[in-house]
Amino acid sequence: MYNGFIKVAAAVPQVRIADCRYNTEQVEQIMARAEGMGIKIVCFPELNLTGYSCQDLFLQQILLDEAEASLLRLMEFSRNLNVTTIIGVPIAYSGTLFNCAAVLQRGKVHGIVPKTFIPNYNEFYEMRWFHPGTTLPEGATLKFCGQNVPFSTKLLFDIADIKFGIEICEDLWAVIPPSSWLTLAGADLIFNLSASNEIIGKAEYLKTLVINQSARSLCGYIYSGCGWGESTQDVVFGGRAYIAENGHLLAEGAPFLLEEQIIVSDIDVELLRHERRVNTSFSSAYELLHQQINRSAYRTIELESGTTQENTHPLSRSVNALPFVPQSGELNRRCEEILSIQSEGLAGRLRHTNTKTVIVGISGGLDSTLALLVAVNAFDRLKLDRRGIIGITMPGFGTTERTYTNAIELMKSLGVTIREINIREACELHFRDLGHNPQQHDITYENAQARERTQILMDAANQMNGFVIGTGDLSELALGWATYNGDHMSMYGVNASIPKTLVRHIVKWVAENVADEYSRNILLDIVDTPISPELIPADSDGNIAQKTEDLVGPYELHDFFLYYTLRFGFRPTKIYKMAQQAFGGSDERVTVYDDETIKKWLITFYRRFFSQQFKRSCLPDGPKVGSCSLSPRGDWRMPSDACSTAWLEECKTLN
Question: Taking every pair of C-alpha atoms in the chain, what is the biggest distance, in angstroms?
């Protein structure tokens, strides 16, 4: 396992019915190929050595002998390979026949797992040949090549501290699949050797089964189905192959190929274990079902970890550079859903407080724009007059003509009440009272403006019997890029669970899908405006001089760091390696960053994330929208005086 990942594969070779020697040659070729790709475990389809559709030929002794000889040949072939191979084979035991999966590694058959559920309906007649694995005696072993091989449905295989279990085809379709018990017993990965024929609509249902089982069991699920070469006498086998992880499809094979295929991906076992730790329902399931799921009944077989240098092989999976941003096919639906959650949260607070007035500070930037759009949507849902939304723009020393104009025009286009209160004079008086030189553009200079604006908003809320809507977003909260008791404070923070990269996409989505032409142009210009608190005077050309991302780093990087820190608890090394791949040029949506830049801002992220917790410990209420939140009452409970030493020390070792 390298940085928590293990490389796995689902193979779909060509077969010839009842030609074990040919089938063995095909398996050997794929095993050698898998070894060269750094794959740790490769799974083949159901009954692959003989072909699934042998029918009554399974009762012929010569076929069973050929299958055993082929298994012996593969066992020898594996002697100098690191890859672990899971192969489908019929096995005779005490006068009965079983449909099995054999696990081979380093010249040894380490275990054999029989199929649990034997289908005998519609086009399936497997009970004519095979018995269910549950009929085996407890602790059964099989004499094979001078060794006693564990033979059971309750086998776990441990390779480099990663456990996997096996189920076969119909097992997945059962009311309670064996994989459910196997994962509760400790399996991180499930391999399914299958022979599922094609009928209309079945493929999509099957894919859904695989994905859902990986989600329900918090596991990696690798599925390999029979394909080209199986009999087409009455049915067709499409050669479906899937690799899923925790409800996400990582890889999918092409169906109906006339040649072999192998699909590869890296399963993030560290991610899966994090999910199991935080999901108390997973551990509770074992506690509730301990009588049925006796872990001591599951035998764990230790496999060699091998000598493959996995870090010499790139990840066989994509890394999303914008994990908070919905994929293009889901963007419209998700943006609408996000805006609805935010608006419903605010509407609920309005109903509870019987308030018909809200105060929003409008700067002409992204965050205040989204907060205003949420307020408008909430008022419309409650059929309240939009004039009850009091938008206050408060020009200061750093306000530019562009943001000021956009703030005013946006409020006009949305039909809210507009107020303008210039803070320059109040701040200058404040500086005189403090004895602060206004030409000294330091933290006092900046924070005084932020707190002056918050004071105005709070007092205006009292004056108008309303409450202040907070505009700060998740990214700012993570970095502490907010003035304590300034823009950090409000009565209800509608953006508290929305990261900056997502804010931009939501505003753009509203512009392109909801707004009229007048509002659309304003919103799109706001999207294109550099992110800035505008607390430092503009440059000589009247443009924004203080650009947030020049000071604290690119938000697309920080949101990436934040997602994998909060959502999965990954360590710095892993996040750094994933960022190298995500921002290495494969994703045209984001900027390409070199290794030193990624490392620089990762260090900044950890320093600020730890040092700024005191601001997050006293956040206003706000709705959770996505899977990540920093609410001290909900998802994130961290002491304000925690030390970042371990994280920063590891960052020093990154290369």
Answer: 100
Beta carbons of 491 and 454 less than 8 angstroms apart: no
Same domain? For 285 and 359 the reply is: no
Burial class of residue 174, CB neighbours in 10 A (0-12, 13-18, 19+): middle
Residue 593 near residue 583, CB atoms below 8 Å: yes
Give 638-647 contacts, CB < 8 A, sequence gap 24+.
Answer: 638/613, 639/613, 640/613, 640/614, 642/610, 642/613, 643/610, 644/606, 644/607, 644/609, 644/610, 644/611, 647/571, 647/572, 647/606, 647/610
CB 195 within 8 A of CB 225: yes
Give, in order, the Cα–Cα distances in Å from 617 to each of 304, 450, 484. 47, 20, 11
Based on the fold, state whether residues 338 and 298 are members of the same structural domain.
no
Compute CA distances 565 → 2, 113, 558, 579, 609, whole Å: 18, 38, 10, 12, 10
Q: Which two tokens stand for residue 536?
A: 């430092």
Is 317 part of any domain?
no
Residue 145: which pLDDT band, with cuts at 50, 70 and 90?
A: confident
The amino acid occupying position 529 is: T
Beta strands in 52-95 (DSSP E): 84-93
CA distances from 81 to 77, 166, 263 (A): 8, 21, 19
Structural tokens at position 245: 């992880």
Does residue 323 belong to any structural domain of this protein?
Answer: no
In a domain, 305, yes or no: yes
Q: Which two tokens stand for residue 636?
A: 């994130």
In terms of residue numbers, what domain contains 189?
5-312
| pLDDT for 364 | 96
What local confidence, expressed as pLDDT, does residue 562 receive? 98
> 550 and 487, same structural domain?
yes
Q: Tell me which of 312, 347, 380 is where a domain ends.
A: 312
Q: Which of 407, 406, 382 is nearest to 394 (CA)?
A: 407
pLDDT at 311 (0 to 100): 59
Rounded to the nearest 5 percent, the helix, strand and coil shares of the chain are 40, 20, 40
Do residue 265 and residue 392 come from a single domain? no
* 319 occurs within a structural domain: no
* Residues annotated as part of the active site: 46, 115, 169
5 forms beta bridges with: 2, 268
Domains in the chain, number: 2
Please write the tens of the pLDDT for every residue from 297-349.
889 999 998 765 555 677 889 999 999 999 888 999 999 999 999 999 999 99
